[in-house]
Amino acid sequence: MMVASRRRLSLALNQVSRLYGIRLNRHYSYNSYYRANVAFRAETDQGVYLIKPVPNEYLRVLRAHRWVRMLESAGYPHIPHWLRSLKGKPIVRLNRRYYYMTSWIEGKELGAAEPELEELGRVLGRLHQTSKQLLEGTCGASYTGLFWNKQVLLKKQFTLHLPRLMRHKGRIGRWFRRERGRCVLLAAEAARTLRSAGVQALLRSEKLRPAIIHGDVTRPNIVCTDERIYLIDWDRARRGSVYMELAKLLTNTTHFSIPLMAAALRGYEEQCPLTREERLLVSALFRMPSEVWYAARDIAAGKSTAPALFDTVEKTWSSRLAAIAWLDRWAAGGLTS
């Protein structure tokens, strides 16, 4: 069965390559934290490329390609080149699945050195600064507000699941019995910051300053070369909240290390200086225990991804709390990044 599955996969990737006028020689699969075969390194007669399957998400990826093309035209240098098929299409369909191809970026993973995180902050800051200039004069939504509404819904679901989670046997039940109050308090403190007059004014002005975000700035999507840092996997690019994306960068790339967080913020503010209200907003979004909401939801639903997600929350919880306290001081102006 596994041999047949590998043959079908190899056949599909060969057919996809031919749609781009390229002959595939060999391929290697790559996995994400939670899924297998999320992308492929394709060695071909014309070089090395990335093949990315995107099932049932054609319109979203087509819109993402539009944003990528705009950023490339504006000279933003941290994007792999997105290929077009023989028919001029950025996305191809095969057997009811969609695929796209980009150039392959050969490099190393993001390390744990402050200069690398500082440069990553600059890369993200350049993205947000460039995209705001591209979209100047257009109107959008309060994307931070939309994200926050989703978090409020997840928190309500958490409250509904909590009695069941607390009865859970073993360390899951013990953790939720011990930390439930702190999770609720963190969410309440974040909500209080968002309701403040200065942050509310910032959210209203966000509609007049839309920006393009990458949408998935995580360590697997960062490649460091001798020349620069690249962000890869742009199929989630969209208009969005720069504050949410900065908070997620701190969550997803720094291991909650305060020196690394400080370095990333220092690099970001070289490109996009933040006002006090913007700092407060980033701090509020960072303190929202989103991963706890997701872990609780997945545990209650019996999802296979739940154990890995809960393990991450449990192992990093103390570091997260220390990082939240540090970011509060940074936001209040007691620290420079």
Oligomer: single chain
**Roughly how much helix do the residues carry, as a percent range?**
55-70%
What is the name of the CATH class of the largest domain? Alpha Beta
Structurally, how many domains make up the residues? 2
Gyration radius from CA atoms, angstroms: 21 Å
Count every helix, treating DSSP H or I runs of 4 or more residues as helices. Answer: 11
Order of helices and strands: HEEEHEEEHHHHEEEEHHHHH
CATH-derived architecture of the largest domain: Alpha-Beta Complex
Short précis:
The protein is α+β, with helices and mostly antiparallel strands. The protein has 11 helices and 10 strands.
Please give a structural write-up.
There is one protein chain. The protein starts with a helix and ends in a 6-residue tail after the last helix. Helix 4 runs antiparallel to helix 5, helix 4 (143-166) packs across helix 10 (290-301) and helix 5 (171-194) runs antiparallel to helix 9 (276-287). It is globular. Helices cover 56% and strands 13% of the residues. It has helices spanning 2-19, 58-73, 114-134, 143-166, 171-194, 197-206, 242-253, 258-271, 276-287, 290-301, 306-331; strands at residues 24-30, 39-44, 47-53, 92-94, 97-103, 108-109, 211-213, 222-224, 229-231, 238-240. The model has no long low-confidence stretch (mean pLDDT 93). By secondary structure, the protein is an alpha+beta fold. It has a 5-stranded antiparallel sheet, with helices on one face. The protein has a 3-stranded antiparallel sheet with strand order 6-8-9, covered by helices on one side. A hairpin with a 2-residue loop joins strand 4 and strand 5 (97-103). The chain has 2 domains: 8-104, 2-Layer Sandwich (Phosphorylase Kinase, domain 1), CATH 3.30.200.20; 114-331, Alpha-Beta Complex (Aminoglycoside 3'-phosphotransferase, Chain: A, domain 2).
